[in-house]
């Protein structure tokens, strides 16, 4: 079995704090797996996500993503790692307000040096799949929360990443929009996309992931598997 | 951690303190500690002070930029202002301060007694007088045998008095015989305190020790000694005269001065008044020097002041504008609108006040040496930074800072609390989206196109940056042009000195050669000093020796002397040329240089004074020979008040060359050539010497130094203005940067994005600033020329080359990029997680 994520003895301390914010943690996520990370505030969920995304570096241990050890990469190499192997979806969307929907989606592709035509083609394909084609020239500020999150998902997928990371993807959405995004994530997983989902919402975790780890005070307190995603 | 709040370009509200899990809610702009302290101490002066201190301390880069930008702006304004003050009628100010004499009169003591002279002080219209002082003229020789020009020596017991209160620049006043004070214009490497002079070239001449240097605005004398000393020198053969110095109640015009002079002469025996100098003549000469610099300093002064206002205004309003959310939080915890306004105005005023104080000190330090140079050029009494400049500039700067801070602070104070918080958190407005759409179509990397469009989100801030870069480019373009023009002026001065070697016949021209005389200071004895004691060489023999000498490339002969021209009172200086004189040609403003007999080339002032123009004929009398010459060119020649005439020697049958100016062949050393030629012509009665390299004139050096200094300061202020704007912009966009980095923007791409956000501004600044600087140069230089009574030739006016202008335009972009480098580096280093959490 190929692991997309391998964490070995990973710990993260901030400043001079005695207790680590995370770890030590050992974790392996297989290709095509959907993992939900749950836990109370301050349990280390976002820290874990940031370490996997290469947004932060561990104090101890090694982080390997898609076969590449990333905990010692330069900032430049980490940026390349993120743009090619990782797609990220945030709670508050993090779309660039001054770019149109299509420009937001194309941005990661353009950062890799893809031609404008290739980036536009891929963005169009994703917008079709996600049902946001009609908003291509709109600005994010005019879209509903659910629509914005779809744009964020499209942006995350534009470079066909090995791993999709979602940080509270429904946390800022109303119930209906949350349901839409939940279904979208399920569809993506069913399509073979490896997904790591950080959430407080146990219902979302159950719906989208067949494996859930529960963090308490930076450590994995529970690691449970379901038969299949509901 | 790389991203930090308050210690760099980063967000003041950076949540990553490193002290806890980042899942905690992002902190507001006021940290928890500050909030607690504020709440504990209540909302009063203490709380307000704490908020202000925290605001100043946490945004250190912005605080530093405010302080440094204000300091540079104030320093530039103090320098420019004090120089403008110094050049505002410096003669009048110095003359008034010294109670200078309206009339400096010399009398024959044999025809007017001391009592008779003393009685003239009671004449109607005389408001003050000094004297009679014994006076004589001596031609001293310095310790190296160098001859000083003839000097007026006046005997005075002290430098003070109700008229002509001398400014003793250094040393002390003579106490005994053998001591003299020299005019400060002689102070330099040749003559210092303690230097000795011989009163004449005679073997038994008296030795005089220089004990001081003094300035007389009215130029009543060149040298002062005790009255007994002057009488003693006069008894050695120099003619003794009596000097009286008068001030009149009416002395503003030439006719009034003529009446005053007549009144004095009429009150004394006939022939007693042997000479009189009007202060108007002295003033005219002094102001000619001063007026040249005024347009230049005015241009720089205006540039500096406008830039100061723009930069300080944009820095302060930007800092207040970006603190809106903090303002909202302050109001939420109970600050009144007035307290918020006070807090933000104070927050701007504290670093600005520090910058202003430092700027005044720096401005004074920079201005003093320039003023000292200015003073030596103007020949006026000691110049210092006017006290009111030191008061007015900081007061105006404080006012500008206060107003710049007050306007946005008042806006913030009026905002409802929730609105203030919302303004600080809300997505940006739709401004500039069209620019993003347009830039996105450019065939450039996405980070670059994204950066190029970003200034349009803040048009006012972008405009301030454009103006800062524009003014910086204007200053640099103007300064580069000015420096080249001044160099061209220096190169055009005295073209005969461009010759490698000069040979002299030993004879003097009509009035004796004058051009080697320095304006002040001792004259070093020329190599041919002994030639005058011999029979002058035959010019034809010297010419033959030059022609026969190996290494001669070309040569031409000249002679100089006084000439008269109808319509011009007194004499003009005539230089007559023999042979191909093109190597010694003056730069031509209009027309052409001499090409044959019957032609004359004259300066601008001559044309204006005589009302003639090119093509007209003038009758010139040289050594009693009068010929009619056709004006064929207007030369750039301001020597002798612009009243030199240049003609072909062949036009005057009796004239013969007294000097030959020689160009040597390539590879021939002028000194070796001169030695060899000297050996050949000395037996004939002549001599030869290599011309030394001429240094730029004092005024040129001073103007260039001023231009360099003021440009450096203005460009620095422009760079700081850009730095501040980019800091504000980067801080506002830090979350977007985090998003970009999260989706894969590399550090290099991030730097590219930030730099691209200012490149467009730099290019626009360059495109506007270079033509504006070009136009300013084209306007100021002719004004400076007119002040010096001369037109300017193309070599002085057309100094810009296309590559140079392109480089200056690029320099505009470079200033912008340099200003943005710091924030760009920070943006590249900031941790993505930190940036993403920043609100």
From TrEMBL, chain A:
UniProt entry keywords in alphabetical sequence: ATP-binding, Nucleotide-binding, Transport
GO molecular function terms attached to this record: ATP binding; ATP hydrolysis activity; transmembrane transporter activity
PROSITE patterns xrefs: ABC_TRANSPORTER_1, ABC_TRANSPORTER_2
UniProt GO cellular component terms: membrane protein complex; plasma membrane
CDD domains on file: ABC_MJ0796_LolCDE_FtsE
Superkingdom as given in the UniProt entry: Bacteria
ABC transporter domain ranges (all copies): 5-230
Pfam families registered for this protein in UniProt: ABC_tran
InterPro entries assigned to the protein according to its UniProt record, in alphabetical order: AAA+_ATPase, ABC_transporter-like_ATP-bd, ABC_transporter-like_CS, ABC_transpr_LolD-like, MacB-like_ATP-bd, P-loop_NTPase
UniProt key word ATP-binding: yes
Parts forming coiled coils: none
Protein name per Swiss-Prot or TrEMBL: ABC transporter ATP-binding protein
């Amino acid at each position: 079995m190929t692991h997309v994520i391998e964490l070995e003895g990973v710990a993260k301390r901030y400043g001079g704090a005695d207790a680590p914010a995370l770890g030590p943690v050992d974790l392996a996520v297989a290709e095509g797996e959907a993992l939900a990370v749950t836990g109370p505030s301050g349990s280390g969920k976002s820290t874990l996500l940031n370490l996997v995304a290469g947004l932060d570096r561990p104090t101890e241990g090694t982080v390997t993503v898609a076969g590449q050890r990333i905990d010692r990469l330069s900032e430049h190499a980490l940026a390349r790692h993120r743009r090619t192997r990782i797609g990220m979806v945030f709670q508050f969307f993090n779309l660039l307000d001054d770019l149109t929907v299509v420009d937001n989606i194309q941005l990661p592709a353009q950062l890799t040096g893809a031609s404008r035509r290739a980036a536009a083609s891929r963005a169009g394909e994703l917008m079709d799949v996600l049902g946001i084609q009609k908003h291509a020239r709109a600005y994010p500020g005019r879209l509903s929360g659910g629509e914005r999150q779809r744009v964020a998902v499209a942006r995350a997928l534009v470079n066909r990443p090995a791993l999709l990371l979602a940080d509270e993807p429904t946390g800022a959405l109303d119930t209906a929009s949350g349901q839409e995004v939940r279904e979208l994530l399920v569809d993506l997983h069913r399509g073979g996309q490896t997904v790591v989902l950080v959430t407080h919402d146990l219902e979302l975790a159950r719906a989208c992931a067949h494996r859930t780890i529960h963090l308490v005070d930076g450590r994995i307190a529970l690691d449970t598997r379901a038969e299949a995603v509901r | 951690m790389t991203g930090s709040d308050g210690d760099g370009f980063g967000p003041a509200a950076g949540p990553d303190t490193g002290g806890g899990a980042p899942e905690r809610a992002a902190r507001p702009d006021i940290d928890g500690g500050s909030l607690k302290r504020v709440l504990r101490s209540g909302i009063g002066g203490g709380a307000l002070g704490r908020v202000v201190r925290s605001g100043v301390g946490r945004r250190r880069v912005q605080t530093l930029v405010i302080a440094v930008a204000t300091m540079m702006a104030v320093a530039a304004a103090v320098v420019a202002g004090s120089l403008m003050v110094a050049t505002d009628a410096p003669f009048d100010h110095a003359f008034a301060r010294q109670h200078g004499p309206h009339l400096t009169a010399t009398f024959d003591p044999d025809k007017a007694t001391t009592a008779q002279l003393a009685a003239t002080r009671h004449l109607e219209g005389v408001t003050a007088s000094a004297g009679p002082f014994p006076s004589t003229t001596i031609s001293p020789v310095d310790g190296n045998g160098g001859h000083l020009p003839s000097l007026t020596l006046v005997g005075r017991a002290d430098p003070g008095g109700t008229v002509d209160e001398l400014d003793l620049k250094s040393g002390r006043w003579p106490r005994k015989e053998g001591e003299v004070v020299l005019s400060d214009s002689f102070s330099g490497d040749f003559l210092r305190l303690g230097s000795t002079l011989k009163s004449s070239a005679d073997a038994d001449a008296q030795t005089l020790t220089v004990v001081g240097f003094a300035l007389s605005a009215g130029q009543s004398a060149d040298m002062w000694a005790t009255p007994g000393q002057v009488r003693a020198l006069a008894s050695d053969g120099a003619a003794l005269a009596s000097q009286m110095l008068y001030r009149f109640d009416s002395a503003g015009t030439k006719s009034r001065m003529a009446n005053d002079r007549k009144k004095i002469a009429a009150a004394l025996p006939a022939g007693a008044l042997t000479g009189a100098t009007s202060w108007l003549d002295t003033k005219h000469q002094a102001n000619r020097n001063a007026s040249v610099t005024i347009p230049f300093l005015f241009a720089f002064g205006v540039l500096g002041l406008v830039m100061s206002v723009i930069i300080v205004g944009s820095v302060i309003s930007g800092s207040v504008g970006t603190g809106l959310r903090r303002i909202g939080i302050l109001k939420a915890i109970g600050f009144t609108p007035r307290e918020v306004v006070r807090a933000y105005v104070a927050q701007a005023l504290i670093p600005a006040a520090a910058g202003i104080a430092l700027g005044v000190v720096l401005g004074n330090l920079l201005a003093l040496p320039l003023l000292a140079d200015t003073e030596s050029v103007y020949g006026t009494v000691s110049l210092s930074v006017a006290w009111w400049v030191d008061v007015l500039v900081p007061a105006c700067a404080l006012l500008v800072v206060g107003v710049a801070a007050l306007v946005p602070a008042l806006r913030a104070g009026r905002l409802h609390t929730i609105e203030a918080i919302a303004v600080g958190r809300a997505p940006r407005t739709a401004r500039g989206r069209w620019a993003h759409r347009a830039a996105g179509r450019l065939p450039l990397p996405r980070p670059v196109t994204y950066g190029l469009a970003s200034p349009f989100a803040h048009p006012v801030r972008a405009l301030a940056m454009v103006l800062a870069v524009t003014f910086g480019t204007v200053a640099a373009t103007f300064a580069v042009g000015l420096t080249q023009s001044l160099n061209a002026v220096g190169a055009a001065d005295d073209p005969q000195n461009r010759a490698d070697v000069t040979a002299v016949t030993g004879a003097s021209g009509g009035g004796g050669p004058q051009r080697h005389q320095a304006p002040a200071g001792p004259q070093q004895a020329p190599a041919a000093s002994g030639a005058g004691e011999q029979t002058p060489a035959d010019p034809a023999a010297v010419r033959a020796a030059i022609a026969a000498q190996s290494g001669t490339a070309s040569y031409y002969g000249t002679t100089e002397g006084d000439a008269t021209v109808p319509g011009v009172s007194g004499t003009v200086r005539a230089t007559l040329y023999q042979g191909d004189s093109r190597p010694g040609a003056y730069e031509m403003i209009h027309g052409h240089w001499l090409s044959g007999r019957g032609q004359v080339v004259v300066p601008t002032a001559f044309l204006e004074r005589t009302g003639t123009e090119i093509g007209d004929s003038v009758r010139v009398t040289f050594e009693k020979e009068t010929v009619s010459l056709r004006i064929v060119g207007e030369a750039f020649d301001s020597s002798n008040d612009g009243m030199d005439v240049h003609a072909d020697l062949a036009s005057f049958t009796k004239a013969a060359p007294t000097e030959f100016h020689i160009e040597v062949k390539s590879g021939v050393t002028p000194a070796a050539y001169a030695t060899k030629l000297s050996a050949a012509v000395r037996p004939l009665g002549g001599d030869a010497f290599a011309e030394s390299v001429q240094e730029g004139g004092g005024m040129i050096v001073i103007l260039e130094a001023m231009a360099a200094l003021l440009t450096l300061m203005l460009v620095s202020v422009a760079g700081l203005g850009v730095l501040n704007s980019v800091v504000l912009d980067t801080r506002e966009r830090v979350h977007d940067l985090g998003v970009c980095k999260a989706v894969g923007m590399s550090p290099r791409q991030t730097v590219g994005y930030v730099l691209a956000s200012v490149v467009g501004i730099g290019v626009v600044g360059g495109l506007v600033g270079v033509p504006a600087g070009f136009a300013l140069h084209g306007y100021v230089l002719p004004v400076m020329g007119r002040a010096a009574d001369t037109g300017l030739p193309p070599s002085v006016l057309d100094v810009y080359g296309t590559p140079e202008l392109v480089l200056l335009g690029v320099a505009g972009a470079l200033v912008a990029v340099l200003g943005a480098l710091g924030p760009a580096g920070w943006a590249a280093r900031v941790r993505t997680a930190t940036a993403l959490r920043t609100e």
